[in-house]
Amino acid sequence: MPAYTEQPTTHEVNVEEYDKVRSKLRELITKKRALDKNLNALEEQIYKAEGVYLEDTTAGNVVKGFDNYIKGSQTKKKAGLNEQDRIFSMSSAIFIKVKMKEDDDKN
């Protein structure tokens, strides 16, 4: 006579499936948080490097053009850094949101 094995009920199968999906979701959320943290660090690094570039190249750069550089104007005056010149940083909608929130928190 064949041995009788008890089949799991539909409820038990659903609970098992739910636990698997919940575990996978937690794993994915953890990965997303790590990726978001990495993205924020990279965007901050780009922001700082971009600022250094714009401050160090007042005579000519890819944003303002090289007219002053070609004319020989080598004055190293520190012009106010215009946030609109940050073409790389401003290309990230998330980074703009973060910066706006930081500015609001300062005021």
UniProtKB/TrEMBL annotation:
Location of the protein in the cell: Nucleus
Taking the record's annotation, the residue ranges forming a coiled coil are 18-52
Example of a GO cellular component annotation carried by this entry? nucleus
Output one GO BP term: DNA repair
User: Where is the signal peptide, in residue numbers?
Assistant: none
Q: Which InterPro entries match?
A: Eaf6 (IPR015418)
Sorted alphabetically, the keyword list is: Chromatin regulator, Coiled coil, DNA damage, DNA repair, Nucleus, Transcription, Transcription regulation
Q: Which PANTHER family match?
A: CHROMATIN MODIFICATION-RELATED PROTEIN MEAF6 (PTHR13476)
What does the similarity note say? Answer: Belongs to the EAF6 family.
| Function according to Swiss-Prot or TrEMBL | Component of the NuA4 histone acetyltransferase complex which is involved in transcriptional activation of selected genes principally by acetylation of nucleosomal histone H4 and H2A. The NuA4 complex is also involved in DNA repair.
How is the subunit organization of this protein annotated in UniProt? Component of the NuA4 histone acetyltransferase complex.
- What name is this protein filed under? Chromatin modification-related protein EAF6
Q: What is the organism of origin for this protein?
A: Magnusiomyces paraingens
